[in-house]
Amino acid sequence: MTVRPGTAVAVPAAAAAAPAAAAATDAPSPGATAPPEPRVVALPAAMDLLRRLRERHGPLMMHQSGGCCDGSSPMCYAQGDFIVGDRDVLLGVLDLDAGVGEVRRTAPADADAVPVWISGPQFALWQHTQLILDVVPGRGAGFSLEGPEGVRFLTRSRVFTTAERAALQAGGFLTGADWEGGARPAPPARPQVVATAQDACAVPGG
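-> structure tokens emitted (206 positions)
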């Protein structure tokens, strides 16, 4: 398995569906390190749009574009319609069954799972930020499923704090090659669906 940097926090696909050892709502023990922030979170409007698209197109995936004809838009595809490269990086797997502020103890069911990918070179430039998936009026990117909906996905971002970056670097990440080999991330220990962009992570100096 190719892992950069550090050791990826990953479990086999079958084990990912098992309940976590501790309740998600349990407070950390004294002196415990806070769980890392997700690399990608979504606002309710984005989750609602993904659910509608899932009903029409089946299981979904997303890829954060790095340029070319569709700029740097987040692109939504039916699973399998976009070929993930070996060096692409998994930002996270959104759970369409999750609500605002909810931490799920188990990996999402296949139909609810939306893997979010980014190219390796783009990740090298953006790894210091948390990506926040939103929806705004306008026509979607040409190859993205929301094109006919009159709205489009938009990526907002916030710079991680030094401590947040250190926690993420210690955990590592999964690549497309890892995913193809059967590796899956553990369920995130922090909410992936946030009420507002300001809720995504703590604001430095706030």
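Residues 46 and 134 are 5 Å apart (CA to CA).
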